[in-house]
Amino acid sequence: MAFILADVTQLTSCNEDRAAVLKTTVANDNLVTVDTMKIPHDKLGDAVRYGRQLMLYTAYYIGPNGINGHYTGNKMNCTNCHRDAGTRPYAFNLVTVFRNYPQYRAREGRVLSLAERINNCVMRPNLGRPLPLDGREMISIMAYLKWLSDSANVNSQTKGLKNMGVAFPDTAASSANGERLYAINCTRCHGANGEGQMRFDEVTYTYPPLWGAKAYRQGSSMHRIVKLAQWLIANMPYDKVTHYKPYLSDAEALDIAAFINDDKKHPRPSKGITEIQYPHAEEKAIDYDKGPFIDSFSETQHKFGPYKPIAQYWESKGLKPTY
Ligand code: HEC
Ligand code: HEC
Which residues are in coiled coils (predicted)? Predict the structure, then answer.
C-alpha cells in the first residue's frame, strides 16, 4: 500500500505533494508560466536567445561535433530533462533558479555559484568538460536564466517549480517489475537496450538514451531512483502524460526508475568526476547509494528502498531527509 508520507514531504523543500498538486492544478491552474516571445530585440536579448538555443540544441552548438565548441560529451540536450528549455512545470523547472544561487550544495559540501551548478550538468548528465566561466556560452545561458527569473509569472502559490512528489511504498522499488513495465511503456521510443534513437542527421537524438556509454553518468541526480521517479510521473511516457494527467503510478515510476538505474543490469559512464560526493554523511540524499551512512541501512536499501524507514530514522535523529 502506498501512502503520502506527509511529514517527510513537508520537510523536504524540493517536492510537491502529488495529491495536492492534482487537486490545485485542476481547481486553479496556478502553474509557472513565462512568455519567451517577449525576449527583447536588443544586444542583451540576443544573448538571452542564444542561451535558450543552447538549452534546446545543446549538441548542435557545443556537442562532440558542435559548431561553436566541443564541450558536452554526448549528444543529449539540456531540454531533454529541463523540458521546454527549463520552462515546463514539473520537469526540473529552471524558471527561478537564477534567484537561488549561490547556494550550499550537499553533494559538493560547499557553496556553488550558478555557473558551477550549470557546469555540473555539462559534466555529469552530458559527460562533458566545463564551459569556461567567462565564455560566450556560459554567459548566454546565465543571461537566459536571469531573463526567465525576471520575467516569470510566479508567486508563493505557483506550482511546478518544484518536483512532483512520489509516495513511498512499503516495499523496495523492484527492478524486475520495472523491466516488465519498461517493455510495455518505454521500449518503443527508448529502445530495448535503452540506447534511444539517433536522429537521421546524427546531430542529436529523436529519443535520448537512458543507459549505456552515451547516457547520464553515475552520480548524476537522474541516477537516484526517487529523483528520476519524481520526473517520470510528470513527463513520461512522452505521448501519454502531462502534469495534470499522470500515467504511471508512483510505485510504477519507482520500479521503472529502479530498472533504468540498476547498475547490475545497465552500464553507464562512471569515471571522470574526481570531487568527493557528499563529504558530510549527515547531508547525503537518502536515495544516494554510496556509503558511509549515518544510519545502518545497506547500500541496497538506500538505492532501492524501502525509503520510509530511512526517512523516519533520520527524522527521529532530528535530521532532514532529502531525496
Ligand atoms: C539527464 C538529465 C539532465 C540533463 C541532460 C541536464 N540536466 Fe540539469 N539537472 C538535472 C537534474 C536531475 C537536476 C537536479 C534537479 C533536482 O534536484 O530537482 C539538474 C539541475 C540543474 C540545475 C540546478 C537546478 C536547481 O534548482 O538547483 C541547473 C542550473 C541545470 N541543471 C542546468 C542544466 C543545463 C544548462 C544543462 C545542459 C547543459 C542540463 N542541466 C542538462 C538533469 C539534467
Ligand atoms: C513516444 C516516445 C516516448 C516514450 C513512449 C517514452 N519516452 Fe522518454 N523521452 C522521449 C523524448 C522525445 C524525450 C526528450 C524530451 C524532450 O526533449 O522534451 C524523452 C526523455 C526521457 C528521459 C530524460 C532524458 C534521458 O534520456 O535521460 C527519460 C529518463 C525518459 N524519457 C524515460 C522514459 C521512460 C521511463 C518511459 C516509459 C515509462 C519513456 N521515457 C517513454 C520519448 C518517449
Answer: none
Question: Strands 163-164 and 15-16: what pairing?
Answer: parallel
CA distance 231 to 243: 10
Second CATH level (architecture) for the domain 1-30+162-323: Orthogonal Bundle (1.10)
Q: How far is CA 257 from the centre of its chain?
A: 12
pLDDT on residue 17: 73
The 10s digit of each residue's pLDDT in 79-134 is 999 999 999 999 999 999 999 999 999 999 999 999 999 999 999 999 999 999 99
185 lines ligand 2 (CB under 6 A): yes
Closest-approaching ligand to the CA atom of 222? 1
For the chain, residues classed under CATH 1.10.760.10 are: 1-30+162-323, 36-151
d(CA 142, CA 47): 9
The topology under which CATH files domain 36-151 is Cytochrome Bc1 Complex; Chain D, domain 2 (1.10.760)
Are 251 and 307 contacting, i.e. CB atoms less than 8 angstroms apart? no
Write out the three cell numbers for 315.
Answer: 527524522
Q: How far apart are CA 133 and CA 287, in angstroms?
A: 31
Q: How far is the CA of 206 from the centre of ligand 2 (A)?
A: 10
Q: Which atom from ligand 1 is nearest to the alpha carbon of 125?
A: 1
Question: Is the CB of residue 186 below 6 angstroms from any atom belonging to ligand 2?
Answer: yes
Of residues 173, 290, 170, the one with CA closest to residue 226: 173
| Residue nearest (by alpha carbon) to ligand 2 atom 2 | 189
- Say how many Å lie between the CA of residue 82 and the centre of ligand 1: 6
Determine the atom of ligand 2 nearest the C-alpha atom of 185: 37
Overall pTM > 0.85: yes
Q: What is the mean pLDDT of residues 2-22?
A: 51
pLDDT tens profile 260-312: 999 999 999 998 888 889 999 999 999 999 999 999 999 999 999 999 999 99
